[in-house]
Specification:
Layout (H helix, E strand, L loop, with lengths): L24 H12 L8 E6 L11 E5 L2 E7 L5 E7 L3 E8 L4 E7 L4 E7 L1 H33 L2 E4 L2 E4 L9 H15 L5 H12 L3
Antiparallel strand pairs: 1-2, 2-3, 3-4, 5-6, 6-7, 8-9
Helix pairs in contact: 3-4
Length: 210
Amino acid sequence: MTSDTPSDPTSYDHIAKFITEDQDPEKVAKIYEKLSQLLTKGEEPLYIAVQNPVLPDLTPEIMVMTNRRFMHYKPDLFGRAKFIDYIWRDMKSVEMEENVWRATITIEVVNGDQVRVDNLVKEQARRLYSIAQQMEESVREEMRLRGMEEKRAAAGGVILGGLSSYSSGSSAAPAEEPVQALSKLKQLMEAGLVTPAEYEAKKKEILSRL
């Protein structure tokens, strides 16, 4: 990553969707370049929030949310920085606090860690909170479906995404159900809620019913 960022506004076209709530384009461009090297296959950034420090000469903290994890970029006083990330299943809770001018996002992690970024523009904090809430719901739904699947498997059948089939003694499922199951399964994998190995195994199982 280079230390210089082009001043030409058109150079920010590739990050235009991440600078819609007063994010600093230079800071977003630099973190996006670093982020591009960290993303895994199928992972996509959803939002980048940049802290508005009290002192203008301080390097801001940055919160990044992708379809698989959330990341915290925190610089120190010596010019170094830590990039810490957690998958969405590790999130225990998320809170947002607003005052007159700014807002704070706090994410509690299941291992006891805490990710906290203050002095955020309110609109940015609200977007972070909304995405975290959506991902929390997705994780909860995935866990519910997995629990149902385990119970169904123990009873001799298989269930996925609310679509069930029995190994014997049941009428044939409608033709569109396996297609819907495959679509749901792919969404879960892209969200990081199902591993590639689990995806392939379940995909073969569903295709065998076609």
